[in-house]
Design goal:
It contains 19 helices and no strands. It folds into two domains: about 210 residues, no CATH class; about 240 residues, no CATH class. Helix 2 runs antiparallel to helix 11 and helix 3 runs antiparallel to helix 10. The longest helix has about 40 residues. The termini are far apart.
Length: about 500
């Protein structure tokens, strides 16, 4: 690079004016939420096509392959990527270029190393990851999938640190739309079966990587600043352990179902978990904005704003997840049949149980982000370690006895145990968290759920009435407010709602 060009690049990064305009919290949620929502819709369409074209056993093998690849993606992180978002958000512009270069370069080195091991020791590596060995025929594709997904993850984390949520949304949109189109083409036109899903995965992620790389606001030289890398790894290691534990608890059920029962059980469980996992991803788009925002507030000493953001977020997410959980309980079987066909009818119970547990899991996850933002990743790790251990133990105990629904019951119990532990960790860290609103929301969810299980009403109007009653009771008990909805709704709409509320109150 010529000296004058280098100076220009450095000036661009060190100037007090950030190269990426920081959006508002609502704008950030809108960008990431829209991108994630689009991703979810298109992945659902892909799944709807795949489960109808492939038999349950083949789709189960594909689900196992996805778990293995995502596990390796997590391994290649080593803590560098998980910390880069927080460090970029809290560092001056002068350090950001070195942070980004070091994170990407180090990730590339680790990816190459892991890929060589997979290709050189195929049988041994696959056996360690999948004792059933059903994935051996597809081992050659694992490095390609690993490279594409790992780089996408790193670049998304960097863009998140810059709060470049619009670019994140565009990349997600590109990846998702292309993946759906290619999946349909490869499955329905070229009849490639499972290989078609693999090809669509690799190509779509690669296109997203190219876009993300060229919109990065930094000088694109690959190099490592060993001092900065050491800092990233020290900060990121507890985060990575946290992520590892989460992955084990979230995905060990698939591996154990494959070992104890077979790929068909994996397919049924994956279909039952498709909607809960989609909602987890949707809440992650919220967390993608929440995490750097909370980090910035706490680093500036604006504790009141930080605590207010936490409690508003807890009320909002808890209400939304409880509402979705109730809908899954009341209409679960119909939803599964419409989306995935009657051959996945057995997935409806898994779907309902996972949705009920999801409400509490989302709250625990948000509390973990808060602890990390406050500089206590170790405490977040401790809370999550307890949760994940309970999940793994429950899976080992319940799968042999309960089969398909065993992991769902295990997760439900573990999430409810983890919540008070996370609250205690927050209060120990002098972070004020209000439990009363979401306790009321959870109580109402269980009351209406038990009532439905007892009555088993067949009339569709009665079922809809139960959902309406749940919403009305939450409004009456003030567990959710217009103020909370401001986080995800335009201010103009909130003002209109408040104006109508004032008119009604004056009329009375």
């Amino acid at each position: 690079m010529p000296p004058n060009m280098k100076h220009t690049e450095e000036h661009r990064m060190t100037d007090s004016t950030s190269p990426v305009r920081r959006p508002s919290f609502f704008q950030g949620v809108t960008y990431t939420g829209a991108g994630t929502a689009l991703n979810i819709v298109f992945l659902f369409l892909e799944t709807m096509v795949a489960v109808r074209v492939l038999d349950t056993e083949t789709y189960g093998v594909y689900a196992l392959l996805a778990v293995v690849v995502n596990f390796l993606v997590m391994i290649t992180d080593v803590g560098s990527t998980t910390s880069v978002t927080q460090l970029i958000a809290s560092s001056p512009n002068t350090r950001q270029s070195a942070l980004v270069s070091s994170a990407i370069t180090f990730r590339l080195i680790v990816i190459v190393f892991v890929s060589i091991i997979i290709l050189s020791l195929q049988q041994t590596a696959i056996f360690l990851l999948d004792p059933s060995m059903v994935l051996l025929d597809y081992a050659i594709y694992i490095p390609m999938m690993l490279i594409a997904v790992s780089l996408d993850e790193s670049l998304q984390a960097i863009l998140q640190g810059y709060q470049a949520f619009r670019h994140m949304a565009i990349a997600n949109g590109l990846r998702t739309v292309l993946r759906l189109i290619l999946s349909v083409v490869f499955l329905l036109i070229f009849h490639l079966g499972m290989k078609g899903l693999i090809y669509s995965w690799v190509i779509s992620f690669s296109v997203a990587v190219v876009y993300e790389y060229f919109v990065l606001p930094y000088s694109r030289r690959l190099s490592i600043d060993w001092g900065i890398l050491s800092e990233m790894l020290r900060f990121g290691f507890p985060l990575q352990l946290n992520r590892f534990l989460w992955f084990v608890s979230a995905r060990v059920d698939v591996l154990l179902l494959g070992m104890f029962i077979g790929p068909s059980a994996v397919a049924l469980f994956e279909v039952g978990g498709r909607i809960p996992n989609a909602l987890v991803r949707l809440t992650q788009s919220y967390s993608a904005v929440y995490f750097p925002t909370m980090t910035e507030l706490l680093s500036k000493g604006e504790n009141y704003k930080a605590h207010r953001l936490l409690n508003r977020s807890l009320r909002l997410l808890s209400f939304c997840m409880a509402l979705f959980a109730l809908i899954s309980v009341i209409f679960g079987q119909q939803i599964i049949n419409i989306l995935f066909s009657a051959k996945y009818d057995a997935s409806s119970t898994v779907f309902s149980l996972l949705m009920i547990g999801l409400q509490m899991n989302v709250l625990v996850t948000l509390m973990g982000y808060t602890l990390t933002s406050a500089g206590y990743p170790g405490r977040s790790l401790t809370a999550n370690a307890i949760r994940e251990t309970l999940i793994v133990v429950a899976d080992l105990v319940l799968i042999p006895f309960l089969g398909l629904v065993g992991p769902a019951y295990g997760k439900l119990a573990a999430y409810y145990v983890a919540n008070p532990i996370s609250v205690w960790m927050l209060r120990r860290s002098h972070i004020r968290v209000l439990m009363s609103p979401y306790i009321k929301q959870t109580t109402l969810l269980w009351l209406v759920t038990v009532l439905f299980w007892w009555l088993q009403p067949q009339n569709i109007l009665i079922r809809i009435l139960m959902v309406v009653i749940f919403i009305a009771l939450n409004i009456a008990l003030s567990t959710i407010s217009h103020d909370d909805m401001e986080l995800v709704l335009p201010r103009t709409l909130i003002k209109r709602l408040n104006r109508r509320k004032e008119i009604v109150s004056h009329a009375q």
